[in-house]
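Table 4 source record.
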Amino acid sequence: MPSSASPPQDLSVSELQEISDEIYKLTLAHEIVLNGDFKLQMGNFSPFSLENRVKETLHKAFWDSLKEQISASPPDYTQAIQLLQEIKEALLSLLLPRHNRLQSRIEEALDMELIRQEAEHGVLDIRGLTTYILDTMAMLCAPVRDEEVQGLQSLTDPAQLFREIFRVLDLMKMDMLNFSIQSLRPHLRDHSIQYERKKFQELLDKLPNSLDHTTEWLREAAAEVSASLSESQPHPAALQRAVGGSPALPSLTAVLNQGYMNLLCWEPGQKEYPETLLMDLARLQEVRAQVNQLATTAAVLLVTSSTCGSALFGSPGFVARLKLVTKVLLEGLSCTRCEEALQDIGDQVLQEVSRALSQLGYPALTRDKGASLKGQIKGIADKSNTVRHVIEQRIHLFLSRFISPDGWNSQKDFPKGLDAIQEELQEVGRRFRSVIHHNRQVFGPFYLGILKKET
């Protein structure tokens, strides 16, 4: 849902909080399904933030108090017993359904009634209990936590040991949650479409104007498709009068394909992003950046090939080196710095060309030809550059067909001039299609409703 849309003024604080919670749930479910690398992370404040200072102060006061209680004569185990209860619950929460025997052993070893009685009679063995807890943690933890659990064995201060046990238990609980997410992801995919659609409709009922930017996005795409249809038909107005009908309306599939492709040319800050795609904004921006990088790389290779000839491009490793040089110098750069990067790329390409020509025993490029190559590469930064324009058209055509519902996987139909980036482009296409396919399935009914109102 949009962060840019202004909520209705008559919503109460509690209603706004409820909407915020629903958006979080929707975003979390979406992220789990779309992002195969998604993992929950421990929340951490900045070390110098006020929140962190307050947290550290309160924690220090708590653990200092625990240390004083345990060190008193006789020891006061009131807080320690509460912590043991919490540790017991944490250990039990880490068990799988098949861990029946281990559950019984934990219940027996950490019998809270018995622990309270032992504390009252002054015979509570804190060290023995923590040793059992550490042994159990060692059995339950993921391999990545083995070293941390083992490190707790050397701690002798009970208060410090309790503090570290809770820290590692928090990490283990996070590991368990991420394991559960990984295990459930295939099942979540089966239900996520209906879940996301239902949650979005609930949010739409509370914020009825929350599809304004999506409507504008579809309206523009529909206009582009209609214009394209009109241009492809000779004398459309005369034809329409002859048959006595209305002009053909663009299909939902055609409009969506055009709309999705427009996202690859979306300039940040110029206009608002469609609300239905905000959850995928970062993913789509990454695809856009990769498409731009691949277009520049392909253009550099094409210009270099036309200058140096096919023989040089056939030498082992030459194309791979040029691709690597271009990728490294373009990595992370904004479009505004593309010209500067291409100047550096031209210098590096010329060095690679000179080295390769020398190794193959071919004559070196003349000074004029070398200067021309560098100038052509630098010129790729211009959006109206012919080579760049042709490459971008071919890449967009490929991606447009790749994300269409029937797909496009034919190797023989791969666009000419893009062979050198075929593997990378297909990988970008798969990522793009994954996002688009899910979005189309979840929000298709909403898109259809919008287009019906517009016609």
